[in-house]
From TrEMBL:
InterPro entries xrefs: Acyl_CoA_acyltransferase, Bact_Acetyltransf, GNAT_dom
Alphabetically ordered keywords of this record: Acyltransferase, Transferase
Name listed for the protein in its UniProt record: GCN5 family acetyltransferase
PANTHER family in the record: AMINOALKYLPHOSPHONATE N-ACETYLTRANSFERASE-RELATED-RELATED
Domain N-acetyltransferase intervals: 4-186
Superkingdom of origin organism: Bacteria
MF (Gene Ontology): acyltransferase activity, transferring groups other than amino-acyl groups
């Protein structure tokens, strides 16, 4: 019987997080992003960035979590990163105070496709919500590629909704549309 759980990322997870990011992007985004961009992503560069995110986060409210599949061996199979919303969470021409206070921003939420549909995404999302509550954040936003139906479907099934904001990322002179989703962080369940 396989078990899955979520834990905070450690510095030595950075290489595996980068590998998962590349593997997932190359499968999930192959029809969204230019192939040469995906082919030329540098795994070592990504690993250094993830190491910094894990070991030197901008604040205690910035977290990187990993999903672990445990059977005869344990495997990192996904990860999530979030923190208080900043300028990257804003829509074009949205004022700096546009989101208000108490808002978390999901920057990454990926599960390697071969490990999908095993509850890892839901466990990552639930662990992020617990962290947001602990930090006093009561809303969250996430950007998703407009063409990334699985991510949008996953988030909307968890209660997220489109908030009407949109933007286009310039990826090697190709504009790739994104939409923003939001959710109110539910209060913690009262103990029975």
């Amino acid at each position: 019987m396989a078990l899955g759980y979520v834990r905070p990322a450690r510095g030595d997870d950075a290489g595996e997080i980068a590998r998962i990011q590349l593997a997932t992007w190359r499968v999930a985004y192959r029809r969204i992003l230019p192939r040469h961009v995906l082919d030329n992503l540098d795994e070592e560069y990504l690993a250094r960035r993830w190491s910094a995110a894990v070991l030197q986060p901008p604040s205690d409210a910035h977290r990187v979590l990993v999903a672990v599949e445990q059977a005869e061996q344990s495997y990192l199979v996904g990860f999530a990163a979030s923190g208080p919303a900043d300028a990257e969470a804003l829509a074009p021409n949205e004022p700096a105070e546009g989101l208000g206070d108490g808002v978390a921003a999901v920057t990454d939420l990926l599960v390697e496709p071969r490990w999908g549909r095993r509850g890892h995404g839901s466990r990552l999302l639930a662990a992020m919500v617990d962290g947001w509550r602990a930090d006093g954040l009561d809303r969250a936003v996430a950007w998703a590629f407009d063409g990334d139906e699985p991510t949008r479907k996953f988030l909307t099934s968890a209660g997220w909704e489109l908030d009407g904001a949109a933007r286009a990322l310039d990826v090697d002179d190709m504009l790739v549309p994104q939409v923003r989703l939001h959710v109110t962080v539910p209060p913690a369940a009262e103990p029975a």
